[in-house]
Amino acid sequence: MVAIERSAFTGAARGYTAVEVLMAMTVMAIGAAGVMSMQKASVQGNLDARKADVANSIARTWVERIQRDAMQWTAPGPTTGTVSNIATAAILANAIAGGGGNWVFPNQYIGNNPPFSPAFDILGRDLATADLGKAVFCVNIRVTWLTANELLRADVRVLWPRGITGAAPNGWCTASLGNRPSPLTYHSIYVTTAVRGNPQ
């Protein structure tokens, strides 16, 4: 009786068939493809979040630069006369001269001390004139009058290319981006502030 039971168990043992192995490999391949696509989406999401954070910091930096520049602009008053000297506020004067209400490229401020640049690297640092072709982020500004000769609305726009590599044509950060860059090509962040002449 014991010998019969042993032979029954021994006869029942067998290996995997080729069909079972192929099915297991198919299931594993489908799972691996899903994991790889999730990893790509995760990497893209993390990169977009990091770049958005850097772009927000750049936008705030340029808002501070515009506010500091506005301190050079003295509004008409008892001690300054009836003429506004907004031309002494170089950033604001250039934006107005570029056609108030249009986005302008503040490139003439490169090399100032401290340096002002419309182009930034991956860490949010101003790029020198020779390195503008390596820009990861690009800044445009726009000003419009809220109250004639008294109060200005200043908009700052930071653009950067879409995608994991951020590949963009060399020298893409130029004034030719225009008023409506393609949202299929660039991410963007907008920050707005109001500035007025210094009453001193």
- The gross shape turns out to be elongated
The secondary-structure element order is HHHEEEE
| Uncertain parts | none
For the largest beta-sheet, the strand count, sense and barrel status come to: 4 strands, antiparallel
- Radius of gyration equals 30 Å
Layout: helices, strands, pairs:
Blueprint: H1 2-12, H2 18-70, H3 90-97, E1 119-120, E2 137-147, E3 151-161, E4 186-196
Tell me what the structure shows.
The protein has 200 residues and is an alpha+beta fold. The chain has one domain. The protein has 3 helices and 4 strands. Strands 1-2-3-4 form a 4-stranded antiparallel sheet. Strand 2 and strand 3 (151-161) form a beta hairpin. The longest helix has 53 residues, at 18-70. It is elongated. The chain starts with a helix and ends with a strand.
Keywords for this entry:
alpha+beta, 36% helix, 4 strands, 200 residues, single chain, four-stranded antiparallel β-sheet
Short summary:
With 200 residues, the chain is α+β, with helices and mostly antiparallel strands.
